[in-house]
Amino acid sequence: MKKLLFVLSLCVACTLVYAQDSNSELLKKLVEKNILTQSEADSIRGNAPTKSALGNGTTEKIRQAFNTPYMRFGGYGLFMYRYSDVANVKHDFEPRVIFLSMRGELTKNLKYFILAEFVNPMPYEFWGEWTPAKEFNIRLGQMKTPLSLENQISLTDIEGVFNTRSISALIGMGDDVQRQQNNKNNTGRDAGVMAYGNLLKTQTHDLLEYKIGLFQGTGINTTENNNSKDFAANLMLQPIKNFRIGGGVYLGEAKYIKPGETEKNDHVRNRWIASSDYRSERVYARAEWIRGNDGGISKEGLHGMGLYYLVPKKFNAFAKVDYLNQNRDTNKEVIDYTLGLNYYFYGACRFQINYTYSDYSKSWGEKNSNAVLGQMQIVF
Fold first, then answer.
1. Which residues belong to CATH 2.40.160.10 in the chain?
2. CATH architecture observed for domain 72-379
3. What does the alpha-carbon distance between residue 138 and residue 210 come to, in Å, rounded to a whole number?
4. pTM summary value
5. Which of the listed residues 30, 95, 300, 337 has the most CB atoms within 10 Å of its CB?
C-alpha cells in the first residue's frame, strides 16, 4: 500500500511541476524520497530567482521517477501505405494505430498492465496478475486469449504488416464471427481469467508451457450476453531448445444473427489448433492449422511462414502462404501468398514492405488481387 501511495504521489507531483504549482507538501515528499534536491524544490516553488524549475537534471530525475518498477510507460505508432489493384481507391495513406501502455510491479509478485489506442480511442488490455512462481501464475482482466502462437505476438514483432488472414478469421480478430456481437476488431482479446506457467525445467529450457482460462466470449469492452463462459487452453512442448510444438482448444458461444434467422441467438463457436515454431538468431519459422465450428458451419485455416535475417537484428526477409476456408461445405476458399522485408533503423523502429497475391475460389465471389503494403513503425 505504501508503494501504491508513493506512485500516486509522484503522478500528482509531476503534474504540479509542469504547471509550476506551489504545493510545498508534495515537493517536500519528493525531497524526502531523494527524487529532488532541496535547491531544485526551491526553484520549482519560485524561491530561486534565476534557475529554471526543470533545469539542472530535474527533468531527467522526474522521467526516471516515472520509469520505476512500479510504473513504466511505453507505446508505439504505425503509419501505413496501402495499394490494391481491385479497390476503388487504389492508393491510401493512414495513421493505423497509436498505442500507449503502462505497466508495473506493485509488489514482487503483483503486476499490472494497461494498453490503450488513440486513433480510434479505446482500452485494449487492462489486467493484473499474481506471479508467485514461473510454474503457476494467475491473470485477471482483459487480455489476449491463449490460442495461437501468432496471436501472442505484438504488432511490433510480427513479420507482416497485418495478421495472417486465417488467424484474423478464426482467432477473434476482424473477420471472426465474434465481431458480430460488438462490431469491433477484438484483436484476439477478451475479458476473463487465465492460469499459465512453465514446467519441467532442463539445463537449457523448459519442456512444457501451458495456458488455461475462462473468458466471456463477447470480445473487448463488451459486457456478457449469456449465462455461459468460454473455455480456452493451449499446451506447447519444447523437446529441444527453440523448437515448440503443441496445440489448443477453444469451446464457447457467440450471439449473433445467423443467415436465415431474424434475431440474435447463441451459436457454437469452437476452435481446435495445432501449432509449431522454431527460432534462432537468424531464422524464425511458424506453422499453424486451425479447425473452426461457427453455428454448424465448418471452417479451416492453415498457414506457414519462414523468415531469415540477412543482417542480424537489422534486416530480414520472409515468405508466407496462408489458406482459409470459410465454409468447408461450399469450399469458400482463399490462398494468400505474401513476400515481405523488414528494416530496423533504430531499436524496434522499422520500415516494412509486403506484397500479397490473393487467389479466391469462385464461391468466395471476389476477384484475385495484388496488394502492396508499406508501414513505418515507431516504438518508444
1. 72-379
2. Beta Barrel (2.40)
3. 12
4. 0.82
5. 30
